[in-house]
Amino acid sequence: MKLLSLWLTTFKSKLYAIVLVSLVVRVIGFFLLPNQPTVALAPDEGGYAEIGKLVTSGQPTTSYGGLYKISRSLVLPASLLNKIGIEPLSSVRIIASVYGFCTLLLVVKIILKTIDINEVREIDFKKSSAIVALFAIFAFLPSHLLWSMLGLRESPMEFWVMSALASIYWVFYIQKQLSLQIVLWLVVSIVLIFNSRPQVGWVLGVTLLIILLFKVRNRIAIVLIPVTLIALGLGYASVSLSLQKQDVFMLVATDGTATDGTACKDSNEKIIVQKVEYICKKTGEKKSIIGLQNPAEVVFEQTQGIPLHHDLNQVDAASMIQTLSCPNSGETKFDKNFCMLWRAPYMSATFLFRPAIEIDVTSRSSFLAALENILWTGAFIFIITMLIKKRRLALLGPITPSLIFFGLYSVGAGSYEGNMGTAFRHKSLILWVVLLLLASAILAKKTPTHRNESSGNAV
């Protein structure tokens, strides 16, 4: 015990101790989880387990529509575990938990590197304790820990979003020069976000382009703008394009004459053309790529479809997110866009701070979510209070990309979601940004007032 207490005296050791305890909790939690999909909390994990099973056996995944393509970051690694004998549900849970563990390691790496090179290198005990506490919240907040242990897309999605933003932070504020590793890091992260949830991929892409355009005078940004666009194109293509196989036929008459067999559907099918009987003969196979669409049109269509998805997500919802009435009830594109902007503040606030106790509680799980939302509300009140008091945030430049992503995601998800339970789960993706804001507010030095400055000059 004495050796352990000595090891936990440094800031670095405390962070890694949290990571280690998290690993132990994940292992214990894995064996405590039920052997069946947790229908009450995460009914989707059963579907991902079945997709992984189909991939392992080489069977088509068409029965799940396009879900396979937008969950490959989870189900493909899980299928590898399935091949060595681990059953499908356990496979997706293990992969999700590995992603969660890797996310903690990534956060520790960024924290330690930031403290090493920035103005917070001489961090005092009180502030270091606050950062350790925030990191512990990130690691062990019940809902966040649970979503990263169940076989869901939340864990890989969080890891790849943070990885992409970390690569931007690394190249501009730590390494301060471009390298092939950074480029590959960014491209792979963006592509795999699309293979986790394409909508989040587009939100991240817009975030990165905004940041890079503001830094366009920097040579690094000039290179990374086309790299980001290429990565977005690859990510979009990976989940949208598919290879279609089509049989090629010839129409063959009894006298041996042949003609084009476009009308044929099956071999040996008989077709009469101008009173002559022909038989369909397969001559080969043609492959073509389908699903290609202008990415800008895709983003526009998805944006326009947000109100419809919001209505669909309200169906059978135990805690339904109400649609705020709009003063403009027209049906034109302008009217619909106006209503989305009109509702955005309310929908974003609903997404961030509900379910609330005595308003939205319909079950035990919604009650627990409402309790946890008290922490979210308290965190924002604290951030605003500290901002008013200190009138600044520490490391504002480095955290700006995360703040932009937070804003865009909150507006988009708030407008899209119609079910508070699902919205609460999807909110876990931005928990790290809230904790980052808390850390920034705590580490910030108070801006001196004009009166204090004058007094200092007089002395």
UniProtKB/TrEMBL annotation:
Tell me the keywords, alphabetical order: Membrane, Transmembrane, Transmembrane helix
**Transmembrane residues, as ranges?**
15-33, 94-112, 132-150, 156-173, 178-194, 200-216, 223-243, 367-388, 395-416, 428-444
Question: Membrane: is it a keyword of this entry?
Answer: yes
- The residue stretches assigned to a coiled coil in this entry are none
- Descriptive protein name: Unannotated protein
Q: Which organism is it from?
A: freshwater metagenome
